[in-house]
Amino acid sequence: MSEYKLIVFDWDGTLMNSLSRIAACMQAAARDLAIEPATELQVHEIVGLALDLAIQRLHPALGVEQIQAMRQRYSHHYIEAEANPSPFYDGIPQMLSSLSDRGTLLSVATGKSRKGLSRVFNAHGVGELFHSSRCADETRSKPEPDMLLEILEMHELAPRDAVMVGDTEFDLEMASRAGVDAVGVTWGAHDINRLQRHNPKICVDSVDQLSRWLHQAV
Length: 218
Prior knowledge:
Elements lengths: L5 E4 L9 H14 L7 H5 L6 H8 L5 H18 L10 H10 L3 E6 L3 H11 L7 E4 L10 H10 L6 E5 L2 H10 L2 E5 L6 H5 L5 E3 L2 H11 L1
Parallel strand pairs: 1-2, 1-4, 2-3, 4-5, 5-6
Helix pairs in contact: 1-4, 3-4
């Protein structure tokens, strides 16, 4: 097995159990604007994309101004809800701490904004575990490869030195386009059949399985 120097994680649906909250806030934003809300499953389809692109895919008839208005309402509801922060999936904090203690470089590539990622870093006190991160408002959205390529450049590493961990086909397609190996997790937004289309090294069904695989791979 390869000895990776860098592990890049998606956030929502991979590390953080926030999918239901994302769906509820997206539905509330639609209702604020008298738009028919998407179903929770439909919202899961766009988790990981930059927010404007996600809204456009959910509601393709909206114009630019309506997309911006919905973005503002979604952000309002999400920030309000995050007064009680979404939890990590069981075992995630312990896995991250263990990997960090081994000296493994950890990074985040997320559809969140920089402000949003900073809020959850601060709320959970985990920011110091991560050596880098890229957010959707800083570069092109997944599944474009830019987030990963920019993270690799920060660390002066080659694609073969990193592995991407994510719960959506956007994560795994981004990894494939960047030439980076990937691991799919099946507890998030997209099912295993969609993940396997992008030829991950493995798809895992539990945090324990993910932790064991990563500890063997670094």
